[in-house]
Amino acid sequence: MITEETKKRMAMFLKTFTTAAKVGNGGDSTNPSSNDLDSVVSSASSFSTVLSDENVVDFNATFNSLNGETIREFGIFATLPTNEAQFIQMQTNMALTGSVTATATTTDTVMVARFNFDALGPFTATDVVNITLVAEVE
């Protein structure tokens, strides 16, 4: 069981640290130890996260560089410290400054989740693709 308060905080964590999205044309399953999409086509030109409920995060991505491409996968990515000591340093800095960005930790971008789907496209030069992923922490 996860408590209601922990669900809220996990959703806040995802909202705060998920910083990017990509689409690709690899449609099969991804190795769980992989840190990127199978075959990246484009990074989001615009990306935002919103808490739509206490334990629900909306990840909104816009892609506009897909001319001639077909997409089959969508991934979201977080910028996170690279080890436990750096998480502790980040926690200390946040307690002292109240800011997530005021950290001196080394970070990596890691894939949080990947979703494959039936092919969409091909797209034209003027097509804009908006993808919203709604994640509920349960």
Q: Beta-sheet strand percentage?
A: 35-45%
Taken in chain order, the helices and strands follow as HEEEEEHEE
Query: How can the largest sheet be summarized?
Result: 4 strands, antiparallel
Whole-Å distance between the termini? 9 Å
Which structural class do you get from the secondary structure elements? alpha+beta
Question: Which structural traits does this protein have?
Answer:
138 residues, alpha+beta, 4-stranded antiparallel sheet, 20% helix, globular, 2 helices, 3-stranded antiparallel sheet
What this model shows, in words?
A hairpin with a 2-residue loop joins strand 3 and strand 4. This protein has a 4-stranded antiparallel beta sheet with strand order 2-1-5-6. It has a 3-stranded antiparallel beta sheet with strand order 3-4-7. With 138 residues, it is α+β, with helices and mostly antiparallel strands. It has helices spanning 4-17, 84-97; strands at residues 18-24, 40-43, 46-53, 56-63, 71-81, 107-120, 129-136.
